[in-house]
């Protein structure tokens, strides 16, 4: 852990800039950095993700974990041992190096937050 | 960052054990560990916090940061430069070493997630 300086911040999700993620294999995924490097957060970063109906994140793996909380909608987490359904108010842990994909199987948008250790960023 | 092993997990907030936090200066605060050491999460931990109407977390400081997302209710974040109001869907960053307190000023329960770097735990 690095000790860090920064400014206390209270800011609505909707007031953060939203950008499509530029990863091959993703469809209909927008991301907002809620707490990140610009805030002085040096240990881990909180991102907000919106996946349109029928959309999905890349089916991929990396050497760091995800900690996720589903805020709205429903879908499946594709894993090597099968699809794991999820819905709002589910907490999800994806260990480092596990293949994974978030798929929106609902009728409306899927929204979740997804945290990663700094300075990793699988959205680029 | 430590590379880690663990098991993929999808589990509802409500299915996690809820315990009062045992910190002096807290009133009406329950905490659930959503993603923590038992899951193999070695870099940061996700906790779910419920503060009853009229309740508050301790007014304190520590050498690590908080990353918070308000899920339900409203309140104020007490800081050295004044009270900062917050409501559901606000993202909050509390830098290391800043004095802070979460106060529920609404009529119902306040719920948020609060992440900390591992292995810190300000709930004990």
Main β-sheet description of chain A? 6 strands, antiparallel
- The side-by-side strand order for the widest beta sheet of chain A comes to 2-3-4-10-5-8
First CA to last CA of chain A: what distance?
24 Å
Count of separate DSSP helical elements of chain A: 0
Number of extended strands of chain A: 10
Helicity of chain A, as a percent range? under 10%
What integer value in Å does the Rg of chain A equal? 14 Å
Give the percentage of residues in beta strands of chain A: over 45%
Q: Would you tell me the structural class of the helices and strands of chain A? A: mainly beta
What kind of assembly state do the chains in view correspond to? homodimer
Mean pLDDT of chain A: 92
Largest interface: A-B, 51 and 50 residues
Task: Annotate the secondary structure layout.
Two copies of one chain form a homodimer.
Chain A: E1 9-12, E2 19-20, E3 27-35, E4 44-56, E5 66-72, E6 74-79, E7 82-87, E8 90-94, E9 101-104, E10 110-117
Antiparallel strand pairs in A: 2-3, 3-4, 4-10, 5-8, 5-10, 6-7, 6-9
């Amino acid at each position: 852990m690095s000790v860090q300086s920064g400014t206390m911040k209270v800011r609505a999700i909707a007031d953060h800039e939203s950008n499509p993620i530029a990863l091959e294999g993703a469809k209909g995924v927008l991301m907002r950095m809620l707490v990140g490097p610009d805030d002085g957060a040096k240990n881990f970063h909180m991102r907000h993700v919106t996946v349109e109906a029928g959309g999905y994140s890349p089916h991929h793996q990396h050497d760091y974990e995800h900690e996720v909380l589903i805020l709205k909608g429903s879908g499946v987490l594709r894993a090597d041992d099968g699809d794991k359904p999820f819905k709002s108010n589910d907490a999800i842990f994806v260990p480092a190096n596990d293949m994974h994909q978030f798929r929106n199987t609902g009728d409306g948008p899927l929204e979740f937050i997804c945290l990663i250790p700094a300075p990793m960023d699988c959205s680029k």
